[in-house]
């Protein structure tokens, strides 16, 4: 600090002590103050992502590699035994992380792309676009989504591509509603008006003016919608109309090995086998819910009701 | 007036939804007659099949025929059981659905009878003793059951109560001749699974609705005048909470309609949900349409009833300025 009183500046002095935190250090700070549930959730999610990415290196056997030993019990060769046609269940669980989670993430991203952009467009142009979109969403939401998905899958056939598109479109109705309702409050701001007067196009206003200001609720919604999509896809695969064999998938694995439950009284581990993929689904859902709870808490400043 | 408006809106939704379900058959690939009847079908048989479905008529006339038939209980004929030779052993969709619909309604009814009172008691008592150990443990338990897929809950129950304990049957195979007591015993596990899934949602929403009300000034006033907590909840909070609670119940009964599909498949229960899943696998479109129509109509009607209860119990909504 300068000793010369003439050149003293309060701004410079306080500026000395002001350290601008990078995004990374802000994240680290947030992680240090997080509750145990959120930490648990983050660790679980990190493990799932790791397993999904490195599946081929982690799995002892191939995804659809068939051994001449169906319904093998748990052993050191086959950690969780083999399934009804002799595929290693542990390997399929690992590949399942990649397929089941990957498909759910792709579906959620697509549904946010559709629902988010339509919601923003409806919020900006409150005339006929909003009317047409809102009324069609009302009708689509009047049908339970699992039933609607079943109808559409029976028409277009159960392929992975159809599954992703159908669930994404059905789910985008919820995203549309949320985006529209939060964006409507931002659209009336002066800076949006200024951007419009500057002659910016619809896409620019959506992306650069409105989107950054509605991000927190959208990110939290992303977590919740992911859980919903993940459970819907698991339920459809379980019903046999979702992800098709030989692709390893947790929902269909539960169904394929369900008969093993009857042997639980002779060998408890055999009875637990069909529950493993189901538990994998449940664990990820719980983890994402924990993280979303914490995120909502952080961003909205909400406190628990007293 | 508002009730009439809501009814009209409900009717419009029903109409729109029936069109969507009808259109689904339009989107089938052009040669699906060949697929249904098999490769050996002659041109004449396929043409006769298309004529029977009325595909030579314009769509709006066909929609009219279909919806008039559906209202009278005629949902068309199933695709399965048709042979390439033109021989037709297919069954009426209504005959397929009828007995199964009764089974599903029975299961859903029993579940509702158990879960609705339990959820209300749990919701009100946790609101009364909120932040206590009791409240926290009930909340934690319900949060976990919400995150679990239905089939996970179902299989855990099978493992514990049927496979290890041998107390309850894991297959809920009933038919028309099964006596009532036997029937109740057989559906114990599916009903328990559905109850666990539904109760969590319903209880949490009831609790939130009551706590929300407890913050209002008139509750504060009642508390200041010396009323006991139980008295406040029963006499002051509950009458105003009926509308949100009715919404919660109807919403969850509507959810029950969907949850029933997975649970019926797990327990091989001969209900309409299992019929629909089978029809989707064999792409038997008329059956899928019929089931979807029933599910959608139930869902819409339940939501409609919830909204109307909400309007009727709230004088401010009933007499708008």
Low-confidence region ranges of chain A: 302-306
Please, what is the average pLDDT of chain B?
Answer: 80
Termini of chain B, distance in Å? 12 Å
Instruction: Characterize the main sheet of chain B.
Output: none
Short description:
Chain A is mostly helical and 306 residues long.
SSE layout:
The complex is a heterodimer of chains A (306) and B (321).
Chain A: H1 10-17, H2 23-32, H3 36-53, H4 55-58, H5 89-124, H6 128-141, H7 145-156, H8 160-187, H9 190-197, H10 202-210, H11 215-238, H12 250-256, H13 268-272, H14 275-300
Helix pairs in contact in A: 3-5, 3-14, 5-6, 5-8, 5-11, 6-8, 7-8, 8-11, 9-10, 11-12, 11-14, 12-14
Chain B: H1 2-26, H2 32-37, H3 43-53, H4 59-71, H5 93-128, H6 133-147, H7 150-164, H8 180-186, H9 188-214, H10 217-224, H11 229-266, H12 272-282, H13 285-312, H14 315-318
Helix pairs in contact in B: 1-4, 1-13, 5-6, 5-9, 5-11, 5-13, 6-9, 7-9, 7-11, 9-11, 10-11, 11-12, 11-13, 12-13
Keywords:
heterodimer; A: mainly alpha; B: 321 residues; mainly alpha; 0% strand
Note down, in words, how this protein is organized.
The complex is a heterodimer of chains A (306) and B (321). Chain A is mainly α. Helices cover 68% and strands 0% of the residues of chain A. In chain A, helix 3 crosses helix 5, helix 9 runs antiparallel to helix 10 and helix 11 runs antiparallel to helix 14. Chain A is flat and about 85 Å long. The relative contact order of chain A is 0.12. The C terminus of chain A is likely disordered. By secondary structure, chain B is mainly α. Helix content of chain B is 76%, strand content 0%. Chain B is flat. The interface between A and B is large, with 47 and 52 residues.
